[in-house]
TrEMBL record:
Pfam families on file: PP2C
InterPro entries: PP2C, PPM-type-like_dom_sf, PPM-type_phosphatase-like_dom
Residues annotated as domain PPM-type phosphatase: 1-296
Protein's UniProt name: PPM-type phosphatase domain-containing protein
Lineage top rank: taxon: Eukaryota
Organism: Meloidogyne incognita
Cited PROSITE patterns: PPM_2
A GO CC annotation given for this chain: mitochondrion
Length: 306
């Protein structure tokens, strides 16, 4: 990447750097699957190139937040507003739900392909995210696929006429952090299939409020009695929100799979049922879940990652 950056692609902004990083990584994945000088291919490298992956990256420098999104993961900001915390969506999904994505893909191919390029709300009738790393079956021409993929039993998608249909180029979103921004949640689509952004922000805020009760209360030195009483009253009200999970990301995943309604016993029964599904069947009920949460505590000085 350093060589490419230095020789071919001068990078002047965070946006340029993020987009170039994504593109170079995707090129490396594809190149690793190419035949060597003897016409041999590495099956492991081919499997990696044929597999697909979405990506979501945040870059924070002082009060500048950039989020690069490729696929259907999402970033949500928890913002303090009028004694409440609201959700602010920072990214857009690269799926058929995004009309701009549909227009982008159709404009890159002949009008004669309008009926085949998106079928059953999927790219060429197969792929749900419209941007992704890998998935070279949607990027390589048929001639190359016949040489590399066909012998391995990996046929090209139907209606593959004018590839590439898929890109890993991310959309990069910018936000200037303020003292009202409390936290950022980055999560794959598996979480958002069960919880919307408002529910996620509410769960995180409740976890942060209740988490304070897990620590021993220690008044500040020479703190007025009135302030101590006020803090104790807040702590007592927060006791009702005492979390079952020490880790906030775990808290979100447990509530996604176990549900937010019913008592704890019922929630754990649902959670156990979801986690006990066999691998082949689980895909029909839940997608992979990865959650990262960033706390902004005095955002100009420090961050906490969970």
């Amino acid at each position: 990447f350093r060589i490419k950056k230095k020789s071919n692609c001068p990078l002047t902004t965070v946006r340029d750097t993020l987009q170039t990083s994504f593109s170079v990584l995707d090129e490396d994945l594809a190149k690793s699957a190419m035949p060597d000088q003897n016409g041999l291919v590495c099956r492991m490298s081919v499997n990696a190139a044929v597999s697909g992956s979405c990506a979501l990256v945040s870059h924070i420098r002082k009060n500048n937040l950039h989020v690069a999104s490729c696929g259907d993961s999402a970033a949500v900001l928890g913002v303090h507003l009028a004694n409440d915390v609201i959700a602010r969506q920072l990214t857009r999904p690269h799926t058929v739900e995004n009309l701009d994505e549909i227009a982008r893909i159709r404009s890159a191919h002949p009008p004669s392909e309008n009926r085949t390029i998106l079928k059953a709300n999927r790219l060429l009738g197969e792929l749900y995210p419209l941007r992704a790393f890998g998935d070279v079956r949607f990027k390589w021409p048929k001639e190359l696929q016949k040489v590399v993929l066909d012998p391995l039993g990996m046929p090209a998608p139907q209606h593959l006429l004018t590839p590439p249909y898929l890109t890993c180029l991310p959309e990069v979103f910018y936000h200037q952090l303020t003292s009202n921004d409390r936290f950022l949640v980055l999560a794959t689509d598996g979480l958002w299939e069960f919880l919307d952004s408002d529910a996620v922000v509410r769960l995180v805020e409740d976890h942060m409020t209740g988490h304070s009760t897990l620590n021993v209360f220690r008044p500040e030195h020479k703190q007025p009695l009135g302030d101590i009483l006020n803090n104790l009253e807040k702590r007592q009200s927060a006791d009702n929100k005492k979390p079952l999970d020490e880790n906030c990301a775990t808290h979100l995943i447990r509530n996604a799979l176990g549900g937010v309604s019913g008592d704890v016993e019922l929630q754990y029964a649902r959670l156990e049922e979801m986690l006990m599904l066999p691998p082949g069947m689980a895909r029909h009920y839940r997608d992979d879940m990865t959650v990262k949460k960033i706390f902004f505590e005095n955002f100009q000085k420090k961050f906490f990652f969970l």
